[in-house]
Structures are given as C-alpha cells and as structure tokens.
Fold:
Amino acid sequence: MPDSGVSKILINENEIATIVGRLGREITETYRESGGELIVVGLLRGSFVFMADLIRKIHYPLVVDFMAVSSYGDGTVSSGDVKIVMDLDESVEGKHVLLVEDIIDTGTTFKKVIRMMGNRNPQTLKTCTFLNKPSRRKHDVPIDFCGKDIPDEFVCGYGLDYAQKYRNLPYVGVLGE
Ligand code: IMP
Ligand code: MG
Structure:
C-alpha cells in the first residue's frame, strides 16, 4: 500500500536497488579505465538519498561534495530561475567530476550547473541522474549515466520532494488521491 497522498508506486525498492547497482557498475568501469581522482558532486537536496546508495556501489576511490541550487519554489512547475544556494568545498580542477542529480526535467538546472562546473577546469565532467523525463526537455543536457526514463508525471520519494515533503519514502511514487 502506498503512503497517504501517494496514488501509485512507480518504482519500488527492489527496482531502485537494481537500477543503482547497474549505475554503480557502469560508473566503476568508466573510471577504472581512466584512473585519476574522482569527485562525486550531488545536487542538494533531491540527490542525497540516491547519492548515499550510489557511492556504495562505486568501487573506485572517490571524494564526495555537494552543491545546492534551486530552480523551483514550493510548487511543481520550474520557475526557470536557477540560483546557487551553496557551493562546493572542494576544488574540482584537474579531477574527474561526476555530477549527480535526482531527476532531469526541463534540463534548466542541470544545464546551468554543467556549464558552471565546466568553467572550473575539471579533467573530465560526466553526469548521472536517477530519473529522466525526456518528454519535458527544454534544454539539451548530456547524460552519461541514466537510471530510468519516466513519463511526464510529478513523482516523489527516494529523496524527491513535493513542497519539501515525501523525501523519506523508500520508493518513487506519484502523488494523487
Ligand atoms: P529542471 O531544471 O526542470 O530539469 O528541474 C530539475 C529539478 O526539478 C530536479 O532537480 C528536481 O528537484 C525538480 N523536479 C523535477 N521534476 C520533479 C518531480 O517529478 N518530482 C520532484 N522534483 C522534481
Ligand atoms: Mg533537485
């Protein structure tokens, strides 16, 4: 049974584990071949649950850092206005950067962050998202590691919120009656 406020479970805990395991293997393979320092950068707040699971499936030495950007108010529609709320502690210069996002929707947020990160001279810059809504894309963004494409529905749980709530759900659900 879904929790109250959730009409349907879109991705259950088992499927999440399968997705994260596969991404971990893909990422491990990629960096094992290239060598060098890896910094995994999570975009707060949505990515923190996914990040926690993902890094434990990456079998390559890494450093974790976070950046907070906000593009949404408390609603479900992007304002298109992306603000840096909290910057990284670590320098990314000369390192392999893996940017981790919870979901890519219009691409507005990720596009801005990718451009900013690229200006800081990393050795390489790759991207990973847990969820992807391709039908909503307004800006082309490169995704190197993609968990799952989903239809145009507003989802929450597993770190994703609606008005800051529902992040603690262990599955990804669709809101509704
Ligand atoms: P974009 O800039 O339109 O790609 O929006 C990206 C951000 O919007 C993500 O990092 C999420 O925080 C949020 N977002 C987009 N779609 C959803 C959703 O279905 N549920 C929860 N948050 C979402
Ligand atoms: Mg987000």
User: Anything to note?
Assistant: The chain has a mean pLDDT of 92. The radius of gyration is 16 Å.
